[in-house]
Amino acid sequence: MVNLMGLFRSPQNELEKNSGEAEGIRNACPRCGVLIDLTEQQENLGTCPNCGHHFRLSPRERIAYLADEDSFEELFGDLRSHDVLGFPGYDQKLRNAKLASREREGVICGRCRIENEPCAVFFMDPNFMMGSMGTAVGEKITRLFETATRESLPVVGFTVSGGARMQEGILSLMQMAKTSAALGVHSAAGNLYLSVLTDPTTGGVTASFAMDGDIILAEPGATVGFAGPRVIEQTIRRRLPQGFQTAEFLLEHGFVDRIVPRSEQRETIGKLLRMHRKGGGAQ
Amino acid sequence: MSAYDKVLAARAKGRPTGLSYIENIFEDFIELHGDRRYGDDPAIVGGIATLEGQPVTVLCMEKGGDTRDRVRRNFGSPNPEGYRKSLRLMKQAEKFRRPVVCFVDTSGAFCGLGAEERGQGQAIAENLLELSSLKTPVVSVLVGEGGSGGALALALADRVWILENAIYSVISPEGCASILWKDAKRVRDAAECLKITAEDMKSLGVVEEIIPEDKEFETVYQTLREDLAATLSQLMALPTEELLRKRYERFRKF
Fold first, then answer.
1. How far is B87 from chain A (nearest CA, A)?
2. Which residues of chain A does B168 touch, with a Cβ-Cβ cutoff of 8 Å?
3. Cβ B115–A244 below 8 Å, yes or no?
C-alpha cells in the first residue's frame, strides 16, 4: 500500500531530508558551516563528518543505532495527552506534533537489549513539541520505571526537552514529582539508571529525572541547563559567555560523568550495563 | 477575583512573607544556616521550632521586608545552595524523626549564571528524589507565589495546602504569554488559561485544603496552627511504610 502520509509531511529531521530521493543534496553544518552530503551524515549517526556536530535525532533513529537488532519492544505506545485544561490552541499543537514526529507522544518507551544486555529504555522526541513533559510523557516514564523495578531491569534514558508542557499547567509540574518518586523506588531496589543528556535538556526535565541518573552521560555540545539561555539573559541583562550550559560546561562543573560521542555510546552503555549486572557482575 | 487579580494579590507588597508564618505559628524558632557545600542562601530560611511542644523542622522561602532585605534575599528566588540547605535540614529531620513544615513563596528558582554553574537543576532534582522517600511527615503550605519547579522542590509533601489568594503555576503568566503568544500583555489570558488559583488547585487535586484569608492574617495563623498540629500528629502516628506509600500514591495519580 502506498504510504500517503509521506507525501504531506516535511522531513522530520536533518537525517530524513536525505532519505532516498534527496540523494546528492547537501546541507550546511550549523556549527562549522561545511557542506555535508546527507548520506554521509546519516552514515555518521547524524553527526557532521567534519566537526562532529551532533544533530538531533528522533527516538526511532536512536533505537536503530543503540538497540540490538529487532530487540526493541515498545511499551505504553497508546498513551497520549489530552487537553485536560481546555488550553487554547493545545489540540491543534498536539495534532501538528503528531504529524511532525509521526509519534503519539513526546517520549518512546520500551524494553530492548544493548550489546546483549537487557534494559528498559526511554527516548524523548525533539520533534514532538521539543520533548516537553506533559501528563502522558510523565506517565510513560513513570510506568517504565515501575516496570523496570518489577522486572529488576536497568533503565537507560535519553533526555531532550524544552521543559514542562505549559499547556497542561500545574499537571505538567506534578509529573516532575511523579517521575522522581517512581525513579526513587527503582533506585532504592538497587537498580541502575543511566541518563544520557542530549540537545537540548532544560527546565523541568533537568530539574527531575535527567539529573538523577546513577551515571549521567551527555552528547558533545548538547545544551543542558535549568533555565533556558534566553531567560537567563533577560534576568541578568547581559549576554551569556561562550560555551555556557553546554555538556562540556557541565562536565567541567562536575554535573555529568562523561561526554560520549554517538559513535561510542553503544559500546560505553553496553559496558556499563554489563558491569551492573545483578547477582554476579561482568561475565 | 480573576486569576490575574490573584496573581497581583499573591505578589502584593505588604503580604506576609515566609518568616511571618514561622514566627506567628511556631514557638522557640532557632534558625540554622548553610548547605555545608557552598554557602548560605538567605532566600530559604530553615531551622527548628516547636508546635504545641512538638519539635518541627521548619522551612520557608523568604522574599524579604525592606528593599535592602529583599535584595539580600534575592527577592525570594533561591539558588542551588538554598535547595541544598533545605535538603540538609530535611534529612536532619528524618534522622531525629521530627516532621517538616514548608512555607512556599517564590516566583521561581533563580535563573542566573551562578545558579546554573552550581547545578540549579540538579539541586531541585535531588530535593524531589529525596523528598519522595523522606521517612518523616512533610506538610507544605503555598502562601504566596508557587513558582514552578523552584516551588515544588519544597512541596513534594504528604499534605499540600494553599492560602486563598496564593497561586501555583508551572510558569509565570508573563512567561507563558510571551512564549505562547509573543505578547507579554496577554498576561491576564495566560493567568486564566494556566489554572493557577487556589480553587483550581483544589479541583485538580493538587492541594487538600484551602486556608481562608483575613485582612490581618490572624485567622490564617490560627487556622494553620491548629490544622498543622492536628495533621502532624496524625501523620506521625502512621507507620513509615504507610506514610511513604500514601505519599507515592498522592503524586502517582497525576
1. 15
2. 170, 173
3. no
Same domain, A109 and A224: yes
Q: Examine residue A221 and state whether it is found in any structural domain, yes or no.
A: yes
**SS3 (DSSP) at A34:** coil
Closest chain B residue to A230 measured between Cα atoms?
B111
DSSP states along A67-113: SPTT--EEESTT-----TT--TTHHHHHHHHHHHHSSSSSEEEEEEE
Residue of B nearest to A135 (CA): B254
Strands (E) in chain A, as ranges, are 26-28, 35-37, 73-75, 107-114, 117-124, 155-161, 193-201, 215-218, 258-259
Chain A residue closest in CA terms to B197? A170
The domain that contains A199 carries what CATH number?
A: 3.90.226.10
Going from N- to C-terminal start, the domains of chain B cover: 17-171+197-243
Q: Closest Cα of chain A to B68: distance in Å?
A: 19
- Tell how strand B209-211 and strand A35-37 pair up: unpaired
C-alpha–C-alpha distance, residues A128 and A199, integer Å? 14
B168 in contact with chain A, both atoms CB, cutoff 8 A: yes
Domain B17-171+197-243 indexed as CATH 3.90.226.10: yes
Residue B166 sits at the chain A interface (C-beta within 8 Å): no
Which chain B residues are closer than 8 Å to A188 by Cβ? 133
Distance from CA of A226 to the nearest CA of B (A): 5
Each residue's pLDDT, cut to its tens digit, for chain A (283 residues) gives 334 433 344 555 655 554 544 557 788 898 999 999 888 888 899 999 999 999 999 999 999 999 999 999 999 999 999 999 999 999 999 999 999 999 999 999 999 999 999 999 999 999 999 999 999 999 999 999 999 999 999 999 999 999 999 999 999 999 999 999 999 999 999 999 999 999 999 999 999 999 999 999 999 999 999 998 888 988 888 899 999 999 999 999 999 999 999 999 999 999 999 999 986 554 4
In what helix (H) or strand (E) does residue B253 lie, and over which residues does it extend?
A: none
Burial (CB < 10 A; 0-12, 13-18, 19+), residue A271, is middle
Q: Find how far residue B180's CA is from the centre of its chain.
A: 27
